[in-house]
């Protein structure tokens, strides 16, 4: 390939750009924060213009680090939520994040009326307050003028793509939730009708074929400082992109992404599921026909740890030392880690889900509280992977696994070795690998995945964490009987 592919991962709170050589080693990288606006009433919004500015910043920065031409741009980023735009790609209102909780009561109503069950049976995806179905239905009732002004109701990655190329489309992975039938890769009209959105059907862009190549237009070229006509790929979004970038390739393999979302995914070759099971999680279409990711993206990720650090008056870089100060079991402190204002979405959906700390005494320390929270999140990961059907190799990425102590907790609680990719920007890696295939010059994915290390399980903790997980499940079952909006 004559030139470099710039991989851009547009996360919720951070946008990253990474360039890799042919062996998968990063040779240039840049990152910059995005603004996330947490408003009263559980509202969480972002400004598309500010997010576009972060993309321009990181692309221009890595371009300045490179020798030789740029061959393509590969986009990935956060999924879910609703990014409303007009025909020119301008936002008609602030983007509503997947973290948003304005539709909490609506979701509870849908659960009581059987709407979520009906959609799950048709799409294999569980609805939650930050999903497009709930947000669009909420806006249709409370802010219809925004939907009237919009030409498309999409997601972060396709919103950025539209501004860079002028194209209105969506990747099949983003479209997988909430209305796509994963077996046919087409929208299910009955599911749309069940959510009362048939009259807004025109806002849903048709999914592009996997590995579709777009072209940078004059407006996009000026924004990024790149040449007009540069090839651009957009997708899959960050969850499947991380799976591809980490090396997930065999049925049964899984990946744990310990980021803002605690995303647990398992590769499968069949979209079959129990229609009478818990209506949660989602089947994500991948770039390969006949391959899917059974995803359980819980809401209990690193944002919970950030909250705890703020409350306890500690810096994030103190987490690993504190984890080492408290022994496994956290001195008897236990946590149900459901701190998100929009509740939980996997492996169960409950907008009223809330956190609990128990077992505290005058002898409990900050280290015990931090370790109990990290152990509680690890128990949530085990719950998710049991629901998703993990049976093969487990990979991991995200800010949480930068902590060796927390990664060890994950391995011990899950009872599985964890493979950690040796390079940063796993989501961007996945996007670049897909772009290479789309451009007809694929990279050696096995070579890229080989640069990794493995965290082994400490068997001496197995019995303790099995009891801890049993206690977690019992406490969760009791709590679910009490949660109310």
UniProtKB/TrEMBL annotation:
A Pfam family annotated for this chain is: FGGY_C
Record's keyword terms, sorted: Carbohydrate metabolism, Kinase, Transferase, Xylose metabolism
Q: Where is the Carbohydrate kinase FGGY C-terminal domain?
A: 324-436
GO MF, one term, reads: kinase activity
Q: Gene3D superfamilies given for it?
A: 3.30.420.40
> Can you supply a Gene Ontology BP term from the record?
D-xylose metabolic process
**Where would I find the Carbohydrate kinase FGGY N-terminal domain in this sequence?**
5-245
PANTHER family tied to this protein: SUGAR KINASE (PTHR43095), XYLULOSE KINASE (PTHR43095:SF5)
What the record says about family reads:
Belongs to the FGGY kinase family.
Write down what this protein is called: Erythritol kinase
Q: Which organism is it from?
A: Amycolatopsis marina
Organism lineage: Bacteria, Bacillati, Actinomycetota, Actinomycetes, Pseudonocardiales
């Amino acid at each position: 390939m004559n030139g470099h592919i710039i991989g851009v991962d547009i996360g919720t709170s951070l946008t990253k750009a990474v360039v890799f050589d042919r062996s998968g080693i990063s040779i240039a990288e840049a990152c910059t924060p995005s603004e996330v606006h947490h408003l009263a009433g559980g509202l969480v919004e972002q400004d598309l213009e500010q997010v576009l500015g972060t993309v321009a910043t990181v692309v221009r920065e890595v371009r300045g680090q490179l020798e030789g031409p740029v061959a393509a741009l590969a986009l990935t980023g956060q999924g879910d939520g609703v990014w409303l735009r007009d025909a020119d790609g301008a936002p008609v209102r602030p983007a509503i994040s997947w973290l948003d909780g304005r539709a909490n009561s609506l979701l509870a109503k849908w659960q009581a009326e059987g709407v979520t069950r009906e959609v799950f049976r048709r799409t294999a995806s569980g609805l939650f307050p930050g999903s497009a179905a709930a947000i669009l239905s909420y806006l249709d009732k409370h802010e219809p003028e925004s939907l009237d002004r919009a030409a498309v109701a999409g997601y972060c990655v396709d919103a950025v793509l539209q501004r860079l190329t002028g194209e209105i489309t969506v990747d099949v992975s983003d479209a997988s939730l909430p209305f796509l039938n994963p077996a046919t890769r087409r929208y299910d009209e009955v599911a749309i009708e069940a959510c009362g959105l048939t009259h807004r059907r025109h806002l849903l862009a048709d999914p592009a074929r996997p590995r579709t190549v777009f072209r940078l237009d004059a407006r996009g070229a000026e924004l990024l400082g790149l040449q007009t006509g540069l090839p651009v790929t957009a997708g899959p979004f960050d969850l499947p992109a991380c799976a591809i970038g980490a090396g997930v390739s065999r049925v049964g393999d899984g990946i744990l992404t310990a980021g803002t979302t605690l995303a647990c995914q398992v590769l499968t070759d069949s979209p079959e599921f129990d229609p009478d099971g818990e209506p949660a999680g989602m089947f994500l279409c991948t770039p390969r026909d006949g391959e899917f990711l059974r995803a359980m993206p819980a809401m209990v990720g690193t944002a919970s740890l950030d909250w705890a650090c703020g409350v306890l008056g500690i810096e994030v870089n103190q987490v690993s030392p504190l984890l080492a100060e408290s022994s496994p079991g956290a001195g008897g402190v236990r946590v149900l880690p459901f701190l998100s204002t929009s509740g939980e979405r996997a492996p169960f959906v409950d907008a009223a889900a809330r956190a609990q700390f128990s077992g505290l005494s005058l002898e409990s320390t900050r280290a015990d509280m931090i370790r109990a929270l990290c152990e509680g999140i690890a128990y949530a990961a085990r719950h998710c992977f049991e629901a998703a059907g993990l049976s093969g190799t487990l990979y991991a990425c995200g800010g949480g696994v930068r902590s060796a102590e927390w990664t060890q907790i994950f391995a011990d609680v899950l009872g599985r070795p964890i493979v950690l990719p040796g390079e940063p920007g796993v989501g961007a890696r996945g996007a670049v690998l897909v772009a290479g295939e789309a451009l007809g010059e694929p990279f050696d994915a096995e070579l890229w995945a080989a640069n990794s290390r493995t965290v082994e399980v400490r068997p001496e903790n197995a019995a303790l964490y099995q009891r801890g997980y049993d206690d977690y499940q019992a406490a969760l079952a009791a709590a679910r009987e009490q949660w109310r909006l």
